[in-house]
Design goal:
about 230 residues; about 20% helix; about 30% strand; 4 helices; Ice-binding_C
Amino acid sequence: MISRLLPRLTVAALALVSFEASAISIGFSNDFSTDVEGWQHGNVTSDSPTRIATGGPGGGSDPFMQFASGTGVARLAAFNTDSGWTGDYTTAGVTGISLDVNNTGATALDLRFAITGPGGGWVSTNSVSLGAGSGWTSILIPIDAGSLTATGAAGATAAGTNVGQTLGGVTQLRLISSAGGANFRGDAITATLGVDNVTAVPEPGTYAMILGALGLGFAAYRRRSNA
């Protein structure tokens, strides 16, 4: 039981680090308990992000978000402009985003986050590979200055020119699959992706300290329970 609760308690512990609700903050998370929480495509289609009520990584009635490409839209991409995912990532101390993902399609994916802001578009330099039929998998994608590559202009998004300016004023966060990188829009592929527990996390040292504190708390709880 404790092991099943750990991911949710980790999110709760991270949320205690910051109390800023109107912009990006460590611990901000989407668990899709009621809706898709701002994730969207440019146009509403059969591939658009949808809340699925059961079958998430927690099993049973754990909800998650699913989006696709190849029917309603060409590219596997979902973006969010809600206040929880925009603002000053640098000041907030957010250097990565953790999430649970499930590739239910027949095409291997190369997952990246992309952001845009005053300094143009930027995308994860290194992708996280997710094989076809992967099952639920927990991943962490860095989103700090050293982990991002400038993209070319894409629609209303300007080419990347200054990563610090963009991280200081993010206006859109985007989850894509892109094999080649330096691509803000994502690849044109046929795919379906499940997503849950999308969480803003700090640099690894801070994250480790928080998890260590959680571990001590669990140990104390078990000692009391076994007394």
